[in-house]
Fold this sequence. Notes:
14 strands, 18% strand, binds pyridoxal-5'-phosphate, 392 residues, alpha/beta, 42% helix, seven-stranded mixed beta sheet, Aspartate Aminotransferase, domain 2, 2 domains, Aspartate Aminotransferase, domain 1
Amino acid sequence: MQTWATVNRPEALMKDWRVPREADARRIRQVRGDICNDHVSLDGHTQINFCSNDYLGFSQNVQVCEAIAEAASRYGVGAGASPLITGYTEIHEALEEALARFTGRDCALVFSSGYLGNLGCITALAERTDTILEDRLNHASLLDAVSLSGANRKRYAHADFEDAARLMSTDVALLVTEGVFSMGGDIAPIRELAELAHANGALLMCDDAHGLGVLGEHGGGVLEDAALGQGEVPLLVGTLSKALGAQGGFVAGPHGLMEHLLQYARTYTYDTALAPPLAAAALESLQLLESEPEHLERLRGNIDYFLQCAQQKTLPLMPSRSAIQPLLVGKASAALAISQQLREKGFAVSAIRPPTVPEGSARLRITLSACHTHAQIDKLIEVLGTSDKLLT
Ligand SMILES: Cc1ncc(COP(=O)(O)O)c(C=O)c1O
């Protein structure tokens, strides 16, 4: 059959439109229907959701939803323009001030996603003649940002401070790490990296997308947990799309650096500003995080409970005290099979496979939320405990 593609595309380009041949590597989507607390409907099957990054359940919080509706009626649904034209509203300004206060930084700049925050920040700061040192398993947005910057790249072994120290040199302008790693749930050796950066005159950048709203006494993330301020870690990147339950991203840091980003971050200048209702939602979530500590307490209680039960069943936990609790499986096919078994028993747990994680380290990425009950965690652990693929 002749399609538009076969008629119009030269053969050379057609080759690029391929999908992975191995079934294990192919990505598929499931259509999500309603979501209600800890339940999600995927392809029409209602399941208990153990794969969302909405760690505090704020994406469905009544006050957050009301803030969205009110902001839409005041400012419109979309921002209508870049923040440097007319897209920067009072809500964006209030959100940036709240984020700066919350993170203990001079100021914050809100981007329309965390991905674009990372791209904008690194490309605005690094020149082709600079060197960037980064964790080998950093998130794709950080890896892509370094590639796009054209800077010389050095990658140290995952979360390995000694390897970072071995590769450090005086030409390193930026040292880049995640705070809580998105696919492992483990935490960067952030104190040691801060000392290393300081001793070598490099700027330390920490993307704590998965630590904010989860770790630290007030949910201030890995940096609050390690008592590291702006002086030690000048650049903090966060997302509004995980514990804050909304969408968007931000970079927070000293005045001078933030002003530089405002002038030169191309993903800030040439992107429509974050939709005002989403900025309002993130602001409301941030206020809830500060005024209602019970959400964070419930999440912490669930993480502790999961760890305790999983240890009793000797499940192959990876080292993590965050809301991301992966179980190491190894083969992609086995991870997919367990994920399917879980789905049949009513649990949504995603199988994470290469190239997202290194070859041979496919895993089940279980994420906990403040909405889960202990009974749901018990049931999940019980089902996992019966999986022969997981225990052999
Ligand atoms: C560590 C990390 N950084 C950045 C991002 C991108 O954030 P966003 O989803 O807001 O674009 C993600 C999201 O998956 C992430 O895990």
